[in-house]
Structures are given as structure tokens and as C-alpha cells.
């Protein structure tokens, strides 16, 4: 595989990971600040979401060169769940239970079938 081809496969994953970090903070970061006015957390979330889109849009555009739409969306969902799991444990102080892990494993199994050719 050429260097450009390798980059086409890996860059979307890196960009979507970064995008999901911003997205998770935009959507759920305010839960630690429930004493703030709703209009303020909405404005802050929009500001954070701008950076999410700055990574997500090029990630999907580059990814579309080598992944079909179903594969690209599957990558996105697995990254979303992975980032959220880490975020919810370390930022929100939630715990992951066995049923969460089983559900996640089933999603990974679904990804196997989506990428199977």
C-alpha cells in the first residue's frame, strides 16, 4: 500500500476520534455544570461543535475515498461509543457495567459483518 493510500485509511479514523472528543464535550460536558443557565451551555456547546465539524467533515470526505458509506458510519459509531465510554467514566464519574460491555461487543460484531466482503 502506498503512503497516500495508507493515509486515506488512517486519517479519517484520527479525524473522527478528534471530532468525537469535541462532540462528546459539546453534547454531554455541560452535565457537570447544571447550575449554569441553559442559554449559556447551549452557546458553549455550539462553539465546541464548530470544532467537531472542522474535523468530522474532512474525516468523512477523506474516508469516502476508501470506505463505503456503511463502513464509514460504522467506524463513526464505534469511535463515538469508545470516546463516550472513556468520557463517561473519567469525566462524569459513571461506571461501565457488564451489560454496557456486552452491548458494545455486539456493535463490534455488527461492524465485522458490515466490513465482511
Describe the fold and architecture.
The protein has one domain (3-115). The chain has 117 residues and is an all-alpha fold. It has four helices and no strands. α1 crosses α3 (69-90) and α3 (69-90) packs antiparallel against α4 (98-115). The relative contact order is 0.15. The longest helix has 26 residues, at 3-28. It has helices spanning 3-28, 38-63, 69-90, 98-115.
- The oligomeric state is single chain
Mean pLDDT: 93
Q: Helical percent range?
A: over 70%
Low-confidence stretches: none
Count of DSSP H/I helices = 4
Cα-to-Cα separation, first versus last residue: 19 Å
Key features of this structure:
117 residues, mainly alpha, 0% strand, flat
Short description:
This protein is an all-alpha fold. The chain is built from four helices and no strands.
List the helices and strands and how they pair.
Elements: H1 3-28, H2 38-63, H3 69-90, H4 98-115
Helix pairs in contact: 1-2, 1-3, 3-4
Amino acid at each position: 500500500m502506498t503512503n497516500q493510500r495508507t493515509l486515506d485509511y488512517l486519517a479519517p479514523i484520527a479525524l473522527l476520534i478528534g471530532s468525537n472528543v469535541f462532540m462528546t464535550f459539546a453534547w454531554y460536558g455541560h452535565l457537570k455544570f447544571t447550575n449554569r443557565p441553559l442559554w449559556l451551555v447551549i452557546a458553549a456547546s455550539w462553539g465546541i461543535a464548530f470544532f467537531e465539524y472542522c474535523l468530522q467533515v474532512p474525516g468523512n470526505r477523506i474516508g469516502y475515498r476508501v470506505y463505503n458509506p456503511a463502513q464509514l458510519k460504522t467506524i463513526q459509531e464505534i469511535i463515538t461509543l469508545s470516546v463516550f465510554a472513556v468520557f463517561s467514566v473519567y469525566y462524569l464519574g459513571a461506571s461501565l457495567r457488564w451489560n454496557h460491555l456486552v452491548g458494545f461487543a455486539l456493535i463490534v460484531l455488527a461492524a465485522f459483518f458490515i466490513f465482511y466482503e
